[in-house]
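Interim report, section 4.2 (structural modelling).
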Amino acid sequence: MELIEAIILAVLAASTPLLIAATGELVTERSGVLNLGVEGMMIVGAACGFAGAWLTGSILIGALFGIVAGALMSLVFALMALGLAVNQVATGLALTILGIGLSGLIGAGFVGERITPAVHLYIPGLTDIPLIGRVLFGEDGFVYFSIALIVGVWWFLYRTRAGLILRACGDNHVSAHALGYPVLRIRTFAVMFGGACAGLAGAYLPLAYTPFFIPGMTAGRGWIALALVVFASWRPGRLVVGAYLFGAVTILQLHAQGWGVGIPSQFMSALPYLATVIVLVLLSRARTGGSTAPAALGTVFVPDR
Amino acid sequence: MQLVLEKRAERSGTIALVSPLIAIGLTIVTMVILFAILGKNPLLALHAYFIAPLTDGYSLQEIAVKATPLVMIAIGLSLCYLANAWNIGAEGQFLIGAVAGSWIAVKTQGTDAGAWVLPAMLVLAAAAGALYALIPAICKVKFGASEILTSLMLVYVADLFLDYLVRGPWRDPHGFNFPTTAEFDPVATVPLLIEGGRLHLGSIIALLVVAAAAILLGRTIKGFEIRVVGAAPRAARFGGFNANQLIILTFAVSGALAGLAGIIEVAGPVGHLQPGISPGYGFTAIIVAFLGRLNPLGILIAGLFLALTFIGGEQAQIAMKIPLDVTKVFQGILLFYVLACDSLILYRFKLVFPNRQVASGTH
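Predicted structure of the assembly:
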């Protein structure tokens, strides 16, 4: 019983940064922009988030630092990929390379420091219910926020006019432009939303997952988040399933050692990355009836005014 | 006021040549600001980064040593990028090449094996790098899986595999518990070009790779095919060129070169297999490829320049306590400016001032 509860709690914690980052990228990609810089924005979010929390003693301010840092990084991307019509793949890579350097520079002074991590909710009575109590009513704020975020994004994309316009930009920017919608401005907002989410997802790691910052602590989670968007066929509902599945794989590899599975730890650590490759192959293979990706994804758009 | 892009009728040739220089200039200006923010004297810092390494023979050799893997990997990547195939996982192919070649070195350690050891290591490393690169290429061609994500995921897998080997089966029993293999035997080591120096045979191999790529791209049908498939996929289809086949080919060549670079690095400057054999060569090579305009000669120059930033970064750390991460920031910013300046080749920037009178007149 307690083991199951512990595993569920660990899976939720491991899935939350993936879910937040992937939700942001889903919105970005739905607007037709492929931002491969998620890893870079996350790692800068982690460094700035920790710096903010350490300097002010507030997890909330730390999270805000992460959000702002991610959004600023994405603004650089938007300037390049949208403003200057530079190849999105190359720009995203540049963002990640820059982010890894920047986070090392920002975080260097904070390595070895510790903070009090985000508190978990506690409602007397409800949180004490065996098995489901802590899972449902005993998480940190980030977990609840991540669920609210994906529900909000689902509602926005499918139930609002603005969401419809955003999806239209992603499917056919020429038509959206012809109808008079400011494609580049809409895409800039979508990119910045994605950046803010990636920054928050990165900040989650030192603020709630571990109470300290180490360089490179995102360890490819940004790239896995990108793969999750493909896994989800650009749909919010499937994204939740995917994020929790990947969180479970991550936890599986951590616990396997504890259970005395006789496999070298490095092989277990490679599991989430191998799972990503296998999932990408299986999904792409299953999709014989044409791609489900937004039709204009990754293409350059220069309005002819 | 609004910035507007206007498509040029044709690519601007002058700007194509000048734009990397503009990019480097802008990067240096940005770095001056960054140094000032860090509280370091910008002029001294720039001197440590870009001038000091050029002033003594040891540093010059070291630049060539660092440029060797960068140039080899970037040449391979440039073939991929020209064919519009996005190999991002050169770092993993580099590591797998290093592992595969080291296998022979480890197995023949202290066995009086002959001069065949090093050539066999080079061949095996190239083959392993090519095979490793073929995984994402085949996943792309057969199943349509994004080669960007799969090739990148395999970097982490290669890194963990190397880590397992040097901490487990290949660990040097006399290595004071450090995760490393024993030093390679002399027959398993890349020979030096200058007695007592740092420059090694790998640099000559890199130059040969540059020459081979220049001939391939400039003088052969295959090179023409690669460029057409990348630049005009539709025209290439009408021309009967097979894009999928080129993805497989360019990934394999690119992986082979990265693998070769991996074993040359391990059997040359490093001398044994251990974690951290690459300060991100596979990723920096992406910058080298773009800065060099995906052109073999350009890549050679760009590789030397980025090698200079590595050596300069080390010198700036020692002399001025400037954090090593500044080098990575520098490289990231440089790639941004290179890409931004590339935009000038295809587009003209125009500032548009909204004319209020005209606007009010139409309503």
